[in-house]
Amino acid sequence: MTGSLSRTIDPFDSFRAKTIGFIFQFHHLIPNLTLLENVELPLYSFPILKQERRKKAIRLLEEMGLEDRMHFLPTRVSGGRGRGRRLRGRS
After folding, report:
1. Which is more confidently placed, 15 or 88?
2. What is the helix (H) or strand (E) element at residue 79, kind and residue range?
3. Do the domain assignments include residue 25?
4. For 69-73, what is the mean pLDDT?
5. Band of pLDDT at residue 18, cut at 50, 70 and 90
6. What is the percent of the chain where pLDDT is above 70?
7. Is 6 part of a structural domain of the chain?
8. Which residue range forms the structural domain that includes residue 47?
9. What does the DSSP assignment read for 3-61?
10. Would 13 be classed as within a structural domain?
11. How many domains does the chain have?
């Protein structure tokens, strides 16, 4: 997934991507990618460097209290544990 974007980013797309989030009842993660890779995946739609994309994904996992599991596959992480931390912050 390297190279330039094939289309320009609509201002509304950018707004939605930067300000609106979703909480899913069930995991919608790609099972053969680590948590870090799953978090990074949506960031491929932005024209940012790989290093910046990786830093942002790590920061998001740290905010959710999942830094110790970032290299785990989704099947190795408790759904309730991860979802609860996301909803109430690190506690």
Report:
1. 15
2. helix 79-88
3. no
4. 94
5. confident
6. 68
7. no
8. 30-88
9. S--SSPPPHHHHHHHHH-----SS----TTS-HHHHHHGGGGGS---HHHHHHHHHHHH
10. no
11. 1
